């Protein structure tokens, strides 16, 4: 149902972004992927997406902490693929540390990648979406856009900010056929989660098993990690014409975490 549409997914060389890119490509969307990684692996992914969609797939290496590179990626997407009709602002990083020890450069980096990149993508994509009278802005936020956990100050602040940006974009674009929504997962088993286990062990003095069961899944009533496919399916639904009235909302997909 996305034939003729183009999607730009930030941070799509791994995890949730890659899952979203595949789901959109399988429905026929041309895709711009983005993120860091091995050149060969990225090229293999690009080819797979191209084969899945039958439309174009382009990789852009824009660093989502750099506003001018983000604007250039959107311009390239417009020139080569016909403009992003769908933007999935997904790129994100994490750092786990008490506030008083939180490295200032980590704070700045997380705010830039997890929050400001969503603004820069939105800002650059809006004129094209307005021009077509159709668009989908999807922000992969987090349960941490709705609630906090200790030792994740920058991440929680950035994700709450993304939730505010999504609501504002929804109001500004409500009469233009453009929706803006947050998808807010609980813990999804991806490299981002795997990488924070050692720091959480250190910050809380716990073993790996204790971090998995007593920290990560402690707040998730289902006691299951959310899957990448489940998150991608929700993002895909928001792209449907049936979802035209869903805007300015923050969709939790968190095994009941934020119901508590
Ligand atoms: P991941 O580490 O698997 O993927 C992150 C992606 O972002 C990678 O492609 C990476 O290359 C890219 N990236 C990082 N820094 C970048 C930069 N400066 N410029 C461009 N790309 C950059 O992580 P993930 O778990 O798939 O997370 C994706 C999003 O989902 C993030 O915004 C994250 O906060 C959010 N999220 C994840 C979980 C979870 O449990 N995994 C839960 C809630 C929300």
TrEMBL record:
Swiss-Prot/TrEMBL keywords: Oxidoreductase
Query: Does Endoplasmic reticulum appear among the keywords?
Result: no
SUPFAM superfamilies cross-referenced by the UniProt entry: NAD(P)-binding Rossmann-fold domains (SSF51735)
Entry-linked Gene3D superfamilies: NAD(P)-binding Rossmann-like Domain
Q: What is its EC number?
A: 1.1.1.30
**Which superkingdom heads the taxonomic lineage of this protein's source?**
Bacteria
Quote the InterPro entries the UniProt record gives.
Answer: 3-OHbutyrate_DH, NAD(P)-bd_dom_sf, Sc_DH/Rdtase_CS, SDR, SDR_fam
Keyword Manganese on entry: no
Checking PANTHER family in the record gives: 3-OXOACYL-(ACYL-CARRIER-PROTEIN) REDUCTASE, 3-OXOACYL-[ACYL-CARRIER-PROTEIN] REDUCTASE FABG
Q: What is this protein called?
A: 3-hydroxybutyrate dehydrogenase
Which species is this record about?
Answer: Sphingomonas vulcanisoli
User: In the record, what lineage is assigned to the organism producing the protein?
Assistant: Bacteria, Pseudomonadati, Pseudomonadota, Alphaproteobacteria, Sphingomonadales
